[in-house]
Amino acid sequence: MKNMLKDVWKRDPKGFLTILLLNIAVSLTGGISIVMLIPMLGLLDISESSVAALNVLAVPLQSLPRWAQVSAMIGLYFCLVVFKALVGRLLSLRQTRFLEDYSFTLRDTLYQAVARADWEKLASTRQSDTINLFTAQCSQVSYGVSDIIGLISSLFSAVVQLCIAVWLSLPVTVFVIICGGAFILLFRKMFRISKEYGDELIRINRAMYAELINQLQSVKEVRTYNVQKEHAALFGGISDSFRQAKLKYTKLRAFPQVIYSCAAAFMIGIIFLVCVLAFEMDTARLMVLVYVFMRLWPVFSGFYGRVQSILACVPAHEKLQEALNHLSQEEPEQENVPLLTFEKDITFSQVAFNYQNSEEAVLSNVSFTLPKGSITALVGRSGAGKTTIADLLLGFLQPTEGQILIDGVALTKQNLPGWRHGLGYVPQEPLILNASVRENLQRFHPNATEADMISALQKAQAWGFVSGLKDGLDTALGDQGVRLSGGERQRIVLARVLLGKPRLIIMDEATSAMDYESETAVRKAIRELSDEVTILIIAHRLATVRTAGYAMVLEKGTITEKGTLQELINTPEGYLNKLLYIE
Fold first, then answer.
1. Is-above-0.70 flag for pTM?
2. Burial environment of residue 2 by CB neighbours within 10 A (0 to 12, 13 to 18, 19 or more)
3. CA distances in angstroms from 179 to 263, 293, 297, 306, listed in the order given
4. Quick count: other Cβ atoms within 10 Å of Cβ 342?
5. Could you tell me if residue 337 is inside a domain?
6. 265 and 355 in one domain?
7. Which structural domain, as residue segments, surrounds residue 367?
8. Helix, strand, or coil (residue 555)
9. Is residue 166 domain-shared with residue 267, that is, in the same domain?
10. Any residues with CB less than 8 A from the CB of 47 and at least 6 apart, and which?
């Protein structure tokens, strides 16, 4: 809880202090309003000793007629109530804005951490867990902060009311404080249970998000195998765990509330008897004292409930901080970085790579050159390290040993943003947003004009089918581009790449799942682009790389063959020579 409070203060100390001051103002105004009841009751002549209180609080009014005293008291009381209402409204608005700003800052900080995270760290984090951080856990932390503010506000209110109670009767007030503290100590073990509930809720939420994403991604297979009931039962079990946890927590909070309510009624009765029989307190003072304690006792129970809520939210704050520390910002800012020139070649110089916490080398002593304007094929079996080379070229990974040189300049984290301005990447699984063709292109190139988009689609051999769609560029493509074939989706992605006018395009198994017509169209697009850009085609099939002029074979993280495509095909016992007979 202390760390949450520090975090809130660090993010907006001025706003937090303003809310505290407004809470103090509301508490003081409410306290003065309560005290005003004593002279007002005294004016009704409920008891003679009430005059003493009247003399203390209303000395300026003693010279006035009775009707004027009554009117002044009522007017002052009314002004206090109105003032408290206005300050309360201002507090509500400021507090809501503060909490919303805090939530926005929290999500924005998390987004920046994810957007600039080290690729290995990001890849090691489950996507469903990351989504859970942005939704459920950010909301939990926001609720916790709201409860912290409420707790502090209730403490201010309690202090003011305790001061009034002490002024009215010190012995009775001490008695009530001791009883209230005893109840808090009695149930303090439940604080630990509340924190355990917070941990359990995070675990269940993560399981629910992960299962939900898995099931949404496998709807087609689930229906194909007719296992809807089994999957529904699996999700229902997780959902029921969430329900049971909520019910358990509600019971945990409800039991002390019942005890507090019963104890409050008992305490009020005891206070009344003690004040009347032992202290012979006047009626006005007694009525106000009972009223104060009736307001004060719920503060004790409220304190307990808020602490429980805060402790239940603490694990969410801890998980967020862990995620922010894990996804530490590794990449430099993208703005104001000079472009890294590429006029001659790209060179891998004795590059080796190991993943974190792994002693086994994925790449070892890899050296090759990609001349500007060339089309080069990188072939090899699955798991040979081809995608790792692509990730190194894209700057997602950094070499463990060796260097990647762009026109002789080493590629580093510092000049990486300037290098990415000239990159294009076409993955095996095309990314198609659930949006129109236009948005699928413009989302990644906001300044692209319609003429630019049409030109890019034409170069990617995609304008033929896009222009035939019902709404052309504004046709919605459905979730994951379900309305397009695999080859059409890949050509949309290629058009997106071309909009950025790249100097290097990496095609990672981009045509492996295409039909003959689509693959032919992509090959034609690649041939027409060869004079404008450098292209690296990553594949493990000979049919995919026929447009390449040069080829390299990667085996177990090492380049074993390289040369022109024809030379490698004609090499006896070579990798491509064997593929020629297999295919």
1. yes
2. exposed
3. 9, 12, 10, 19
4. 20
5. no
6. no
7. 345-582
8. strand
9. yes
10. 282, 283, 284, 285
CB 579 within 8 A of CB 561: no
Which has the closest alpha carbon to 317: 104, 1, 10, 11? 1
63 and 181 in a single domain? The answer is yes
Q: Which residues contact 290 (CB under 8 A, 6 or more apart)?
A: 268, 271, 272, 275
| Stretch (H or E) spanning 523 | helix 516-529
Pair of tokens at residue 573: 């016992």
Which residue blocks in 116-137 are alpha helix, DSSP H? Answer: 119-123, 127-132
* Per-residue pLDDT reduced to its tens digit, 73-89: 777 777 777 887 888 88
pLDDT tens digits, 396-407: 888 999 999 999
Cβ atoms < 10 Å from Cβ of 519:
19
3-state helix, strand, coil in the chain (%, to 5): 65, 10, 25
Structure tokens given for 180: 């209230």
Structure-token match 């660090």, residue found: 10
CA angle 428, 430, 434 (to 5 degrees): 160
Assess whether 246 and 373 both reside in one domain.
no
CA distance 500 to 442: 11
DSSP at 133: I
Indicate if 285 and 410 belong to the same structural domain: no
The pLDDT tens digits for 323-335 are 888 777 665 555 6
User: Buried b vs exposed e over 454-473: b needs ≥16 C-beta within 10 Å?
Assistant: bbbbbbbbbbebbeebeeeb
Paired with 404 in beta bridges are: 348
pLDDT class for 49, splitting at 50, 70, 90?
A: very low
Q: Say which CATH number the domain at 256 has.
A: 1.20.1560.10
pLDDT greater than 90 at residue 26 = no
- In 3D space, the residue among 28, 42, 150 whose CA is nearest the CA of residue 99 turns out to be 150
Please count the structural domains in the chain: 2
Look up tokens 């800052």; give the residue.
Answer: 105
Strand, coil or helix: 356: coil
